[in-house]
Amino acid sequence: MTVLRRTGQIAQLLCIGLFTAATLNVAAQPQVENKPRLTNRLIVKYRNGAGLASLNDGARMAGITVKERRYNREGAELWKMARSMTPTEAAQVAASVASKDRNVLYAEPDLIMAPNMVLNDARASEQWDLYDDTAGLRAPAAWDQTNGAGVTVAVLDTGYLPHADLAANIVGGYDFISDTTMSNDGDARDANALDTGDGLVAGECGGGYPSGDQPSSWHGTHVSGTIAAVGNNATGVAGVAWGAKVLPVRVLGKCGGYTSDIADAIVWAAGGSVAGVPANPNPAKVISLSLGGGGACGRTFQSAIDTARGLGAAVVIAAGNSNTDVSSSSPANCNGVIAVAATGRTGARAYYSNYGAQVDIAAPGGDMSTGQADGILSTLNSGRTAPGADSYAYYQGTSMATPHVSGVAALMFAVNPNLTPDTLEAALKSSARAFPGTCDQCGTGLVDANAAVVVAAGGTPPTPTPPTPTPPTPTPGGVITTETEPNNSIAQANAISASTAIVAKMGSASDTDYYSLSLPARGRLEITLTMAAARADYDLLVLSPDGRLIAQSINGAGRIDRVTLQNRGNSAAPLLVRVLYYSGPSGDTVGAYGLRVNIGR
Fold it and tell me: Do 483 and 449 share a structural domain?
């Protein structure tokens, strides 16, 4: 029996780099523009009461089916159509009705008015992942249509704590941990899904893991808050589907959780039967798993996923945090799941996120390498090992990206309960928007809550605005130049005479590029190397004219390389800059890189 722990081979909590923020800071609320809602009605006014004779002809000529009609106080007909449309589509249909039937005086959409959806949660301004139009979820426009009410999302994780900003949206639950040591609550499976903590002392899980003491993660509470923290309550944060319910299913405890327990929990969460466990009175339409381990998808996981899908539940799983292909991360590599990669504050792939052909879509997961506030803020607990007071925290990981997609799936089911796991996935992926940053092999795009809800409801998504490519930024006083090939040797080095931003490419895995410059006496040199493809790993070296290494930056794939030097001498120093291929893609497009060179004092 495979055991999944928090090591490379076992089920991990797929979040990394944790920062707590226990206090509630009141901040100004973002002002969110009201977005038009879908409508399935037209207002049609006929000349001299001609509507009775002309209804069928007018509708037929316009290519629509009218299911019912009634009249308003001015005698205009209110047509209820067979499907919902965006206001733009409805206006086009109305224009078609008016143009094709001369008896129509006017026709127009019967639009739905709604208040501007601006939530009053105290820390909403910190939730870039929901509100930011570039790298965020675009949730406010989706909330103008639904908040997820009526949908249950199962969170298979460490359980939950009754956080004041979450408890109202918790329903039912079960503890599936069969090992009493892992459960940390004195018993095996039972109906109590409360998180008793997963803190560890050094070496507790065997094999030298962990290397040092670890506090409890309260991971399930953070994930649950991202999905359905209570919204518009003037407190803390709001979840993606803040009107939905969370079904907490405890599958991870101290050192992780067993495949067999997690598989049973998947089936039970969807409403299936599990021997020895009471029936689930709250079957979930979405099953969210922010966990994973190494290896191929086994039959146990695949069978459970197939059963849940057969019961109508969509299964959303974190792609993993190993900066490697998701094909080696189970259960995200199973068939029929929605595998989620993570993006950071710029909309580019987070440095830790897995990628690959089996990733379906990406969502905000945070990247705190650029600052704590660039993580994902959600509900947590201040207790180090045992539960303490309610708190909030910034986490990052595909664990954080996954509940964003699970929340959007709940919004989609709320507007269309007839979706199947397949039709939901297709709508989710087709409505995703282009990445504003580099995210190679991250699925069809960045999840767009508003567009996904529109498609799920039967409408046509808004025409996406492609992200504007960001040109290289020259350093102060510099210009933008282009690499000149060949420059594969010291003798062929491109000369740099002043501060500049260089647009270049690594044409092949055997390519290398040289640049030469002179650093003035007492001068300061700063060089920054960025790659276009997230999986590209090129290195930055500074050499003496005869090729001896002076300084280098050899960060991993997707990371920025930077070298800073100071010439403390009284004469200019000739230098070489070399960009060296290490791994990942290369070529005219995916091999592109930018080199910013600042020469100053």
Answer: no
Q: Identify whether residues 280 and 392 lie together within a single domain.
A: yes
Q: Give the bridge partners for 392, in sequence order.
A: 21, 379
Contact criterion met (CB below 8 Å) for 224 and 160:
yes
Active site residue 406: no
pLDDT at 22: 28
Q: At what angle do helices 299-310 and 259-269 cross, to 10 degrees?
A: 10
Amino acid at 429: K
Residues 12 and 90 occupy one common structural domain:
no
Residue length of the chain: 601
Q: Is 48 left (phi over 0), alpha (psi -120 to 50) or beta?
A: left
Task: With CA atoms as reference, report the closest residue to 538 among 500, 584, 507.
Answer: 584
pLDDT in tens, 24-53: 222 222 222 334 467 788 888 888 755 444
- Helix-helix angle 398-415:421-430, to 10 degrees: 110
CATH number of the domain to which 487 belongs? 2.60.120.380
At 110 the pLDDT is 83
DSSP designation for 582: E
Residues 239 and 364 in one domain: yes
Cα–Cα dist 39/249, whole Å: 37
Q: Which two tokens stand for residue 573?
A: 């120093």
Helix, strand or coil, per DSSP, at residue 393 = strand
- Helix, strand, or coil here: 16? strand
Q: Could you tell me if 197 and 263 lie in one domain?
A: yes
Which of the following is catalytic: 219, 224, 390, 404? 219
Catalytic, out of 399, 499, 516, 586: 399
For residue 303, indicate whether it is catalytic: no
Of 423, 456, 489, which one is at a domain's C-terminal end?
Answer: 456
Counting beta carbons within 10 angstroms of the beta carbon of residue 524, is it exposed (0 to 12), middle (13 to 18) or buried (19 or more)? middle
Domain that holds residue 574: 479-600
For residue 341, which of 243, 250, 432, 255 has the smallest C-alpha distance? 432
Determine the Cα angle at 473 with ends 580 and 577, to 5°. Answer: 25
Number of Cβ within 10 Å of residue 594's Cβ equals: 19
Please give the Cα distance from 6 to 255 (Å, whole number): 6
Cβ-Cβ contacts under 8 Å for 269 (sequence gap 6 or more) = 154, 156, 247, 249, 280, 283, 284, 287, 308, 313
* Cis peptide leading into residue 331 (ω within 30°): yes
Distance CA 385, CA 513 (A): 52
101, 110, 157, 261: which one is catalytic? 157
* pLDDT confidence of residue 310: 96
Contact 190, 175 (CB under 8 A): yes
322 has catalytic annotation: no
Position 99 in a domain: yes
CATH number, domain containing residue 73: 3.30.70.260
- Average pLDDT by stretches of 10, the chain with 601 residues: 35 53 25 50 77 52 68 78 78 86 85 61 93 92 93 97 97 94 92 95 88 93 98 95 97 91 95 96 97 88 95 97 92 96 95 95 94 94 96 96 98 95 94 91 95 86 44 60 91 92 89 93 89 81 89 78 86 93 81 88 74
Same domain? For 151 and 240 the reply is: yes
- What integer pLDDT is reported at residue 58 of this predicted model? 57
